[in-house]
Amino acid sequence: MLDEWNSQLTLTDGADAALAGLGDVPGGPPSALLPPSDLFGLDHRAEYLARGRGHAVAFTVCNDVLFVATSRNFLLRHDLTGDASTVAELEASRNADTRVRRLFVDPLGRHALLTLQTGGHGIIGGSGTLETYYVDGSLKRARPLHKLKGLTLTSVAWSPVLRAQGFTEALLGTEGGGLYELSFEPEGKKERLRQLHELRGETGPIAGLAQVALSAEKRLVLALCGTRLYAFSGGPTLEAVFGGENLLAAAAGGSTAALESRAGYIDLPTQTGGAQLQLLYPAKQPDPATLSDAAGPGGGAFDMPRPEVFAVLSPSGIYYGKLDLDPSVLDPSDHLVKHQLLPAAVLQLQQQGQQQGPPSAAAAASSERPLSLAMTQHHFVLLFPSKLQYVNRTSKGVVQEVPLQRFASPVRGAATMPLGLCRDQLAGRIYVLAGDDALEVDASDEDRDMWRVYLDKGEFRAALVHCRSAAQRNSVYLAQAASLFEEGDYVAAAALYGKVTSSSPSFEEVALRLMETGEPEAVAAFLQTRLETLGKDDKAQATMVATWLTELLLDTLNRALLQPEPGPGPSSSSAGDAERAPGEGSAAYSQAVAQLRSFLQKYVEVLDPGTTIGLLAGYGRLDELMHYARCRGDWESLLEYLLQRQEAERALEVLRRPSVSQELYYKFAPALVAQAPALTVQAWIDVQPPLEPHRLLPALLHFGEPGSSAAGQREALKYVRFCISRLGSEDPAVHNLAVALLSLDASQEQQLLDYLSTARSLTGRPLYDPVHALRLARDRSCLRASVALFCEVGMYEDAVALALTFDGELAASIARQPSDDEALSRKLWLAIARHLIEEGGAEGAPPEPERIRAVTALLESAQGAVRIEDILPLFPDFVEIDAFKDAICSSLEAYNQEIEELKQEMQQATHTVQAIRDDLTRLEHRSAAMDSSEPCARCGRPLHAPPPSSAGPAGGAMPKLFLFPTGNAFHGSCLCAEVAELAPAAQRRRIQQLAERLAGVPEGAAQVPATADAPVASVEQLRQQLEEEIAVEDPYEGEGVARHIGLPFVAPAEEDSWQV
């Protein structure tokens, strides 16, 4: 967008009011630098802007692209971010009587409107024909806009939503006060012009125009015309902002009230119209990818940033204010807030005070009026005919002036020096046109002195925001603290004094002065703030301050404790409150306790532990002492303190904290489980990540001994079961403790038996120590468990002997277990039989017939492990054999049955051998039919065709074909090559030798001649040997392929050659 100064002034030859000449002042080099103490600098950015196409008559910078219109009707485009030699140019007209009147460029630098005047000698007030052209950003061609012919454009407001590849809309302001909307047809070939509004009753053109988006559905339009700044709001279209056809009809009927009904305005304090309207936009440049053709039809959209400040340059001065862009504001003029006038007379007085030289020079300088205006974040930049002036918006004072003769030089062919000033709205940079050069205003250091400006005005908060150094902040803190101290706000003043880091005033001076006020809160506030200000290197002072502050907080707590709580009277106190301090339940006391605890927690790293513990103990604050230990992370001391007071539950609460190390669980496990076994075990179970069971077992071992508490035994067993079932522990110590706990009560032996049967690893190995478990079971009279454990350790004889003392069936079940060891099984059954026989001599034993029947039943249970002949020697000699008649007959029948089974097995083996012999005979004479055109499984050639030479020796007495039962057929040489690739080296050599000897004799020969390595042999013999080497199995589906699956693709000797 063209700077509004270019809209108000035309740079042409002979213009007597547009420019101030500098041709008689010798200029310095363009690269001259300002003193380093200045807030602003000027940097040379481009030279030879006109490129010999005349001199500049208008310029603007948009999105780092500089556009220059020259006196010879050329439009040039300079890219300030790339190569300075890359300049695009367009000749708008070759008519010698045509001059550039106006140039407007959108903020993206992609669309431009160029107004040319033919005739009238280029003078604004002269007669002539005006034509407006549309030019795209690349300056390919100038397209005439016929509907704008005759209109004198004075300002343009581009759409708040910009597009790089497509022209959306623009609001045009004319010399007669009319507002028009310019857009193009969807095809982009024909323009559309619509009149939206007309400002009547004002003299002068529309000198400034701007559009701002309030929301997606509402926009704000500002128009500077005459002595008023108009504001229109509405939307979402421009037609909706200005009321559409209704207002146009009202205007045609002469109803001025209807025209102004939708507009708000503010009257400018000037008798003549404003020359320029400026908005301060935040710097925000679009991403090039957003504006590329790939972004979609018409290019990507870019939303203009929202401006913050507006300013109007007028002969009376600078009228400026802030923009309230709240879309809910109803009156459009209410968007313009905090507006005020910076009178021109104030600037002229400051100029006279700063002007050096004779009085005539000062008078001449003061009579100059600014040509153009631009804004930075904190300053106005004013362009005068001979200088640049920077004015602070907050202090309203001139902070710097730069004579332009130091940067500009005369331009040949121009009666006056071309000057211009504009701000790149997207990049946020300000550029100055001086002669044929472009200069950039360096405003990077403009906020250097803003802190002092705000400090002088008493705006301390804003001053702190702009401070750059500790010394500047100290000055602000001291000034604000002195102001508050004078007002009697000692606490707030003390907090500010604490933030001062300079050596003056000293710490002692401030502390004494605050102590003289008699307010301990002020001293505490000073110490608190100073403590927060001190750095890591001031540890000694920080410790001293923190200790002093701790004592003050303790004193405050004591005073709150001694102060009686407000109430109806002493009679209302109960007998239980007799030992309480008067103010223990007061809000002041609770607040003091909370403040002390918060302080201890915050500055735990600063406080000296010994001194702090002494202070807390001296004041009797045991709870705060415990809190301090918690803050220090000294959980070990805290836990010892709690366990000494028998407060195991609170100790467990401490252990549950995420910041507490799990190592303390192990250290304090004995004490905790002794005081509160149930709570402790539950805490062990709940902790995450789980604890290591073997480190907690020492605290539980004594519960596995007889005489320990029943409650402790239950909780220990609960934790052991948790470790086994939930944690899947296989630690032998855990399982040994489980055996010890389960074996304590012999009446509950079944639980122990169930555990012994399930406590095994995946391989079947017991997870406990069987020998240790056996000792416990024997000592605690767990007989069945002892029997099971005897079996577990392989002591079956002892197990049977123990089982026979109380349960014969159990002994029999044990004798059946070693089924794979016949000798042991026979020995166990004999032991049971001997016990049955020998118990006949005992008192109260069953009669002999019953014992014989029991022994006979035992033989049946043994299922052949022992026979009657094994048991008979155990009976006395006088026992009659008739009693064993049935057992002996059964034994004989069993022998006969075994003999018959052996005969059948021998006959079946004979038949199997004969069947195998018959199969081998048939295989020797088996044949198969095949087509000679079938392909070889290796080379793919037909079987009747010769094999490839790469397969190896062929022809002669070599077998021509091999056909396998799998259906694969090979040439003889192809099969040799295939098997040799997979065969070991020795077999590979044998195959090669046999193939070469057979291929070396003619077909039909019976003998193969001898060689140096082999004697004479028959062809049939060599063929048989070759078949044994290569035709034992199909090489594609035999065992050889399976054996080579695990071999690497690269041989070990070739690994180095494959290294990358």
Instruction: Tell how many strands the DSSP assignment holds.
Output: 34
Question: Could you state the oligomeric state of the chains shown?
Answer: single chain
Beta-strand residue fraction? 15-25%
Structural class: alpha+beta
Strand order of the largest sheet: 1-30-29-28
Number of helices: 37
Q: What would you report as the Rg, rounded to the nearest angstrom?
A: 55 Å
Shape category: flat
Largest sheet: 4 strands, antiparallel
Secondary structure: helix percent: 25-40%
Mean pLDDT: 80
Through-space gap between termini: 61 Å
Q: Which stretches are poorly predicted, pLDDT < 50 over at least 5 residues? A: 1-36, 255-261, 569-576
How do the strands and helices of this protein lay out in sequence?
Elements: H1 4-8, E1 41-46, E2 56-62, E3 65-70, E4 74-79, E5 87-91, E6 98-105, E7 111-118, E8 129-136, E9 142-145, E10 153-158, E11 161-163, E12 170-174, E13 178-184, E14 191-198, E15 206-215, E16 218-225, E17 228-234, H2 238-241, H3 245-252, H4 256-260, E18 263-267, E19 276-280, E20 301-303, E21 309-314, E22 317-323, E23 336-343, H5 344-354, H6 359-366, E24 372-375, E25 379-383, E26 387-392, E27 398-403, E28 419-423, E29 430-434, E30 437-442, H7 450-456, H8 460-465, H9 470-487, H10 490-499, H11 507-515, H12 520-533, H13 539-562, H14 587-602, H15 609-618, H16 622-632, H17 635-644, H18 648-655, H19 663-667, H20 669-675, H21 677-686, H22 693-700, H23 710-725, H24 732-742, H25 749-758, H26 770-779, H27 783-792, H28 796-804, H29 808-815, H30 822-838, H31 848-862, H32 868-871, H33 885-924, E31 961-963, E32 969-971, H34 972-982, H35 985-999, E33 1007-1008, E34 1017-1018, H36 1019-1030, H37 1039-1043
Antiparallel strand pairs: 1-30, 2-3, 3-4, 4-5, 6-7, 7-8, 8-9, 10-12, 11-20, 12-13, 13-14, 15-16, 16-17, 17-18, 19-21, 21-22, 22-23, 24-25, 25-26, 26-27, 28-29, 29-30, 31-32, 33-34
